[in-house]
Amino acid sequence: MIIKTSAIKILTSIAVALSLSAVSYAQDAGLIWDGVYSIDQASRGETVYSETCVSCHGQDLGGNSNSPGLVGMGFMFLWEGRTLGEFFEKIRSDMPTDRPGQLTQQNYLDVLAYILLKNAFPSRTEELSSNLDILNEITISSK
Ligand code: HEC
Description:
The chain starts with a helix and ends in an 8-residue tail after the last helix. Helix 2 (39-52) crosses helix 6 and helix 5 packs across helix 6. The chain has 2 domains: 1-30; 31-135, Cytochrome c-like domain (Cytochrome Bc1 Complex, Chain D, domain 2, Orthogonal Bundle). The longest helix is centred in the N-terminal third of the chain and has 28 residues, at 2-29. The chain has 7 helices and no strands. It has helices at 2-29, 39-52, 54-57, 72-79, 84-94, 105-118, 132-135. It is an all-alpha fold.
């Protein structure tokens, strides 16, 4: 009986520890509508965009006859319910199409922040996390 009680106590404290770590993990990731990138980061991203993406995706991110738009309903249609991790991987592995993977990890993150800004997602003081596990926890959702 004594052994059983202490086993339960140990299990309970493990469960508490696990749920506590789950909570702090969720706070690190944050919700897209609470803000996940900073304005400074998005303006660096704007520079990257105008150097490497604008020729195909357009000044207003509306796309052209060969390249899809990256804002508005078209964006949400493709990306709603998916995560920033997936979005990041898509850009990093396929863009720009003429030389995929050529930018630095930081440049890809910054341009991602710029696309979020142009889709009217809110900013915060901290930059977007570069941790893929955290990006995978942030779901793109409409308000
Ligand atoms: C040479 C033209 C070209 C350049 C430059 C280019 N893209 Fe693209 N992009 C495309 C084409 C074509 C597609 C559609 C095919 C695909 O999804 O792979 C696309 C698709 C995308 C998608 C997926 C669209 C969606 O909504 O699913 C994203 C996001 C994207 N590009 C971002 C970027 C970013 C960011 C840059 C700059 C770092 C960039 N692209 C540079 C041509 C280009």
